[in-house]
Amino acid sequence: MKIYNTLARKKEEFKPIEENKVKMYVCGPTVYDYIHIGNARPMVVFDTFRRYMNYKGYDVDYVVNFTDVDDKIINKAIEQGVDFREITEKYIKAFKEDARDLNIDEGHTIHPKATEVMDDIIQFVKDLEDMGCAYNVDGNVYFDVSKAKGYGRLSGKKIEDLKAGASNRVDENDEKKSPMDFALWKRVKKDKEPSWDSPWGKGRPGWHIECSTMSRKYLGDTLDIHAGGEDLEFPHHENEIAQSETLNKKPFANYWMHNGMIQVGGTKMSKSLGNFFTLHDIKKEYDLMVVRFWLLSSGYRLPINFTREIIEQAKNSLDRLNNAKFRMDDLLNNVNNEITDDEKELIKALVSYEQRFKEVMDDDLNTADAITVLFDIAKFANTNLDKNSSVEFVKYVRDMFLRLEKALGIENRKKSIDDLDVEKIENLIEKRAQAKKQKDYALADQIREELSEMGIAIKDTREKTLWERK
């Protein structure tokens, strides 16, 4: 399998540290609010990567952290007059509910919290200080970026340019030796601020050191893959590399995967613009499986646009796949014929669909083309399966379809075909009749195909067009 490695800026063949095992760390949310669709993209993308590696036979150690101590959390807790843990527990619970609705494999995900590894964080910082790579200023401990080798190579930024830019934004009284240095430990500032005892006095960790510590504790000094949104490349991931490789004297991660950002109506999503959508709100109107399907319908490194029209299109497309699966379920429960020679030949041809699925997924997780393969199988099923098919043939097609859906994390939750939209069917039939009158046979054929994908067979008579379930 080839994946695009941000560190190398090219696709590279994936070679794990241990045979048939993947150690993967994905930066999780800061739990001070409901997660938004921007947070959902790495959740879905990298869960799909994990699922596909499982499909290929890999054992995946998969870690997604919770940042549960942070300025935003502290400020919200003070504002509401509650302990900061009330805030984090509320939104961790909400995160897990949203993850479940997105069909994230939570049962095989490790979720460490920063507050659970505080002793490890303090030791990490102390070790860097003992090496002369960190320094204490009145209870604030900073990492000395001049001690890090190759700083900027992940983000492609030059340290000279970064220093110049940072210098323009730093007060003259800043206590750091260099504007590029970053906080490992922060002294306590407010009475109600959560803090922990440390060699430098009461305080709490900086953001970057949390991920370095948690990934090291659960996955070791070197990861196979570190992943997250492209907005984390700098400074978060760059700083993780600096402190981890300085301490461990080893590569921090062999591969870096970053997903593209989400736009809303072609504009960058932000709270200030009022185009900010949480999953908590979206799922009041849509099944989050539709959101998962939409997120997988584009290459994960590309920007993706969110609009109501696009989500409706995703819903309709997912319904087509669901209906194909439900039709196969019905057939499997109602056929009992023996397999024929023609069916055996069709099964041989069907193998190429799964091979195509593997080829596109092996090309940097090309989920968009993988979904196209699912539609091809659905079309194959609608064309070649009927009440005269054999049990073995129906089961073979259905099992392949479900196997590939599972690798993408797409799940059929309810049998919508039990509640046929009769009005929609009859409107389509009327639209097809008008198209035939106007000699628009291409549109007429397109509508017939759409009805077929809904599990509906039509028969033209002199009086009218009849329809029935296949």
What overall form do the CA principal axes indicate?
Answer: elongated
Sheet with most strands: 4 strands, parallel
Stretches where pLDDT is under 50 for at least 5 consecutive residues are: none
CA radius of gyration is 27 Å
Query: Would you tell me the overall average pLDDT?
Result: 92
What is the straight-line distance between the termini? 39 Å
In total, the number of strands is: 15
Q: Give the percentage of residues in beta strands.
A: 5-15%
What is the SS-derived class?
A: alpha/beta
SSE series = EEEHEHHHEEHEEHEHEEEHHEHHHHHHEE
Strand order of the largest sheet: 4-3-9-10
Kindly state the percentage of residues in helix. Answer: 40-55%
Report the total helices. 15
